[in-house]
Amino acid sequence: MLFVLFGAQGKPKLAQKRKTLRLKYVLFANEVAAWPLLPIKPANLMRYAMWLPRHGINSGWRGVSTYVSAACKWQKELGWPDPRADIWFYWDQFRHNFQRLVVAKHPMMKLPVRPAMVTAMALDADLTDPVDLRDIAAYHLLFYTGFRIGSITASEHALRFEDLYFYPSVANCQMVLICLRSTKTRPRAAGLPFWTAIRRQPQLRFCPVALLLAHFLSSYRQRPGDNVFTTPGRRPWPRTSFNTTLRRRLGFAQRRLGVNLDLSKFSGISFRKGCLSVLGALNVPAHRLADHADHSSVESSRVYTVDTMIDRAANSDLIASRVLAG
């Protein structure tokens, strides 16, 4: 019974975390009579998501998603399909509305990476070292594309070598076309991949295309289905490892930049925020931001296009001019 409930024990910390996540769903099912416990009905999954904020999960969708995903993974381990698979459209709408309407605390909101930080980390790296090259190529890819972190770390959405097309050729690459077979907003089963591209920037000391190409040439082993970014042992790149390395590199970079950073406020999503913040500051309209970021709606992009305080202060000049005109 303990094996069925919690799974194989494995490492103590991981086993305890799995136990905690699964017990939460058991408590929910017992309280609201959501039987049978497994397989989980889609309606009960939505009820569970709404139940969690009233029972200690105050971090909004991010925290709720962790518990919901754990319940779905538990079900899949026991041989049933993910309950979200058959209702992915309605689940996506539910997730979007949840984030808009359910109040959350954000004590550790992540900050965007700025262009100077990306450059400083590259300056401190040894690009002849495969690990340093991987890191800096990944940072520039994320910063220029606005990809979610799951596109390069251990995830079902991870980018593979077969998803890269160097145009017009590897030898004379001017642009890289990139296909994500699935994303957070595009389930793989829907068959609607997301395409984007980055163009060569020869005027820059660190060109995103040149870095990605150099990483490709050093790491590709004639296996198109392999992940583009992996550990030195060719295993999927853990997100925790990515974040730890990023904070270490930012720690070195802050000395070069002459600033003091709260390193805990930076993670993989900081590149996506940095990318969209730069484009928003350059007055790229929300609909183009939504296309660039693969947002599910333009509303999600609006946060990056709001006026600055200086812009809003300038509005008072416009109003005053109308007052003077009578």
Describe, in plain words, how this protein is organized in 3D.
The protein is mostly helical. The chain has 3 domains: 2-101; 118-260, Intergrase catalytic core (hpI Integrase, Chain A); 283-325, no CATH class. The chain is built from 12 helices and 3 strands, in the order H-H-H-H-H-H-H-E-E-E-H-H-H-H-H. The protein has a 3-stranded antiparallel sheet with strand order 1-2-3, with helices on one face. The longest helix is centred in the N-terminal third of the chain and has 21 residues, at 12-32. 25% of the residues are buried. The model has no long low-confidence stretch (mean pLDDT 89).
- How far apart, in Å, are the first and last alpha carbons? 80 Å
CATH architecture of the largest domain: Orthogonal Bundle
As laid out across the biggest beta sheet, the strand order is 1-2-3
Kindly state the mean pLDDT as a whole number?
Answer: 89
**CA gyration radius, whole angstroms:** 22 Å
Q: What is the H-and-E element order?
A: HHHHHHHEEEHHHHH
Tell me what portion of residues adopts beta-strand conformation: under 5%
Instruction: Name the poorly predicted regions.
Output: none
- What percentage of residues falls in helices of 4 or more residues? 40-55%
Largest sheet: 3 strands, antiparallel
- List the domain count as a whole number: 3
Find the count of extended strands (DSSP E, 2+ residues). 3
Number of helices, where a helix is a run of at least 4 consecutive DSSP H or I residues: 12
